[in-house]
Amino acid sequence: MSAPGISRVIYHLGDGSAPAGELGKLLESLGFKVEPVGSVEHFLELLSGHPPHAVLVDASHASDLAIVGAACRQAQQSAGDNSQRIALVAMAPQDNMQSRLNARRAGVDALLFPPFHAVDVARRLQSVLAPATSPSDNDSDAVRILIVEDDRSQALFAKTILINAGMQAEVEHDPLHVLEALEALHPDLVLMDLHMPDADGVELTALIREHPVFGSTPIVFLSGESDPEARFNAIDAGGDDFLAKPIRPKHLIAAVANRVRRKRLLEKSVLAQGARDEATGLYRRDFLLDRINAALAHVADAGTAEGGVLFVKINGSSAIRERLGLVALERVFSAAGRLLNDAIGDRDAVAGINDNAFLVLATDLDDGTLDTLASRLRALLMEHSFKADGKTLRLQASVGIAALRCGCDDANALFDTVERTCREARIGNLGIKRYIPPEAAEKDRQAAQVERLREAIHNGGLDLFYQPIVAVQGGNDAQFQTLVRRRAADGRLIAAAEILPIAERGNLMVELDRWALTHALGVVRQQDERWRPVRLFVPQSMTTLTTSGQAAWLAAEMARHNATGSSLTLECRLEDALLNPPALAAFATAMRKPRIRFCLTHYEQSPAADLLLASAPLGFIKLARKYAAPNASPEVRIEMTALVERAHGLGIKAIGHRVEDPQAAAALWISGIDFIQGNLVQGVGETLDFDFKAAVV
Q: Which of 192, 218, 361, 651 is deepest in the core (most CB within 10 A)?
């Protein structure tokens, strides 16, 4: 690859369109040197004299892919074995078998399908150009394999082969000690025997998949089992591959090495990014949360009253994107991050949270100084002249403040508190708000609210209400949104919007969410007994989804109600999911066996949302309310159509949410939406009496 400080060269064989130009600008901002190429003839001339690091073939040149691939291979062969490899990335005009076959025959390293987003293309190019490292070059990077095998001779056979291949291999003979072995080794891959005493490989795999740390660790079965049903059960439990004994050493090494290589590439692109972001210098969110936990522990131990956390949010990011485009938006927020990082300095820390928010840890500052810092950072962002495509841009910002001593037990609780405070700050005139723990009288009032809600959860004071979700193209499948309501003493129905803040304050979110799930499963069972199957969409908080043991609890509840995953869809707000994408992915992976589907609600297009859409195992998205507005601009309509197409390309169904009038429904229908929910179809009710067969949207 190129020497340090030298840009990596990409030949972009395209048609010179505006999207191609936008992509080129983004790639150059990431350190690539992009050479636009308009014809195959021009490409062949360039290739003969100056081989690039990568070739990107636009969909407009899909028919030239075979020629390009052959030319790249010939260039590398002519240069010799020690020559730089040319990576080949292609953009297919459509996703079908022929496109995939053509790409494979041409030797394509990465194949992309429409709709094409500049951010996605750039990430794939970065991925294929990431320098390969040999695991054996550094002991800390050595491939770690855990062999779970009760037969000592078989275990020794596999261990010897893997060690001779330069890997670190450890054996666990007792299946009941597998979790301890996992925590001690943190393996890149588990080589699992199928038949063992006390616990078989299928049971162990299911347990590992429920573990929050090892839920995505590759598990490869190595067994002499020939029964296809047994093999199916192993894969269905969460196994990634099944190797038959006896196995040749080179086949075992290849199977293990390929699985680990894919795992590490994924980690490198998503997780293993270090403490700081290279482009902005900002800390990673998880790293900063660890520092906040350490600061909270110091406050508790030392009894100090100083220090706090700021949540800084850029307002109106959607309007900026609509006005300037996605690439310009990313550049602006990267510049804002660098500006904040420079202002904070080395003593304290700032992390990027998503596309429009930053988290700041400020230690050793009293309340007055924290307020001053919040004002200074907000003024800095609002007074700075940001440049985007030759235009000057001024930002608006809101800041929430929470002291370390505010009473939060850990970083996640403090994070939730300061983020909520920032939302409240946006409504206020000053744009800055400090979280103030409630005084005695207010505490008593809030405590009474919490106690009433606790009583309702445990003693029949809550009800489930329903709203149908109807297929635009028609269909017989019955599916409803569930909504929690509490009946007050005067008979008034209290909606979730009033219930949820009380549940958050009283640490009742898990109890409330579990109540909703248990009752939804009870309804599903009743409908099944009446031969009227139904799918229920049940909202869940990230607090619940990240609770230890939640996956196991839900699996047990489903078994108790004899329910299948197809009857249940778990909903999570996009805004909440973006605060902790790895946790959502871990829970979804743990629920892979019951095949529970997931839905992101209030979905609005952004780079972070796009990344989550592509990486999380989702079944549905519910579009943000702006897409269903009757007066939505043409730009919003175009964005919505592209968003729906992108979801469909990933196998995800799109739901139009809160649809109130025919005009909005028509716009959603034109965009290719799959389902509609809202009062236009039917209002919220206490029963499941809706005729889906007769429903016409």
A: 192
